[in-house]
Amino acid sequence: MAENKTSLVKELTKGVIKENPTLVMLLGMCPTLAVTTQALNGIGMGLATTFVLLGSNIVISALRKVIPDKVRIPAFIVIIASFVTLIGFLLEGFVPSLYDSLGIYLTLITVNCIIFGRAEMFASKNGVIASAFDAVGMGIGFTLALFLMGSVREIIGSGKWMGITLPVLSDNPMLLFIMPAGGFFTLGVIIAVVNKLTNKKPPREIGCKGCPNAEACGKAGECK
Amino acid sequence: MKTILVIMFSAMLTDNFVLSKFMGICPFLGVSKKLDSASGMGIAVTFVMICATMVTYPIHHGILVPNHLEYFDTVVFILVIALFVQLVENFLKKCVPALYKSLGVYLPLITTNCAVLGVTVLNIDNGYSFGQSVINALGAGLGFMLALVIFSGVRKKLEYADIPETFKGVPATLIAASIVSVSFMGFSGLFN
């Protein structure tokens, strides 16, 4: 039992640092770049994704013996899309401001490769409880990464943090950082810093070699 | 005619899907290493985008809206795209093997490409007519291809550049993407 407990804790913590989905495994780049013009948006997106990830991981792992292997990809997609519709309703009803600022990227959680990747790699092979822990860990890791990105971009780009105006920095904000170009730049620098700190080589290439979803998409990026 | 041109060019240049809307970043970074694979992926995405729009638009306006089921958009669209990509793949394999050889490999990757789902949802959100939707999809696809092709040229140079060890690989690629994105900012304000 004791051993069981430690393994659950491991499932939870691995997503936060060691296998951080965004900064180490380089998954789910689109929302990471798109919604992080403010730290709060980053947290909102992270939590919404965590909700979908938790729901889809639990359902998929509960149904893993029922879903035939051949149709698993469409089945997973439908389960994920249902949870995205659900979170869309919840946000629209309770946090309309966040719903508006996330806009179309809320719908696009459906095709976030973190969620599909966890379904394919973890939930379809493990039990319900382990999958739930895995989802929460990955979700926290994703939320933290988005929060970090959002903070850097908001502080440098608009001289604010969580909506609070900062002295000195807000005098001459570098607008470029809240523009698309600043998103690419910030993410590049953060990944470089993570490389330096962890001192190990995360996947160098964003192609099939480094991508854990390679099997699911038929290694399509590998071509030629 | 003027609106059509504005829709097409703004989807292609000012609101470029990859560089200003951040959709389809994975193939943008993954498949842009060589010019031929970049253009192949671009053509495949453009093709699927146009066809997906042609299929999802009637479904939304003909089936979902009359039955007040608009909230099923996401589920139905992604399923339609997934099925459609599978269909196209099988069709090309059987009937046009030459085209399958050059495009087929990119097709499975497209299902999870958020640009395709993005363009179909945006068409509905913006309230475009059928013709405008198709034009918007065409512009978005061409813009995607343009970004991929330009970036493959940049990456070729990057291979020979002498960059610090920590920045090698993904970080350098992202920073290069940032510079390409700055160049696309030059198009902003082109259309109003």
What would you say this structure looks like, in words?
The complex is a heterodimer of chains A (224) and B (192). Chain A has nine helices and two strands, in the order H-H-H-H-H-H-H-H-E-E-H. With 224 residues, chain A is mainly α. In chain A, 62% of the residues lie in helices and 2% in strands. Chain A has helices at residues 2-14, 29-34, 39-62, 72-94, 96-102, 104-107, 113-123, 128-158, 180-198, and strands spanning 160-161, 164-165. Chain A has one domain (13-210). Helices cover 74% and strands 0% of the residues of chain B. Chain B starts with a helix and ends in a 7-residue tail after the last helix. Chains A and B meet through helix 2, helix 4 and helix 9 of A and helix 2, helix 3, helix 4, helix 6 and helix 7 of B.
Entry summary:
The complex is a heterodimer of chains A (224) and B (192). Chain A has 224 residues and is an all-alpha fold.
Oligomer: heterodimer
Helix/strand structural class of chain A: mainly alpha
N-C termini distance of chain A? 49 Å
- How many E-type strands of chain A? 2
Ranges of chain B where pLDDT stays below 50 over 5 or more residues in a row are: none
Radius of gyration based on Cα positions of chain B: 18 Å
Give the DSSP E fraction of chain B (strand runs of 2 or more residues).
under 5%
Strand content of chain A: under 5%
Structural class of chain B: mainly alpha
CA gyration radius of chain A, whole angstroms: 18 Å
Low-confidence segments of chain A, given as residue ranges, are: 218-224
Q: How many DSSP-defined strands of chain B?
A: 0
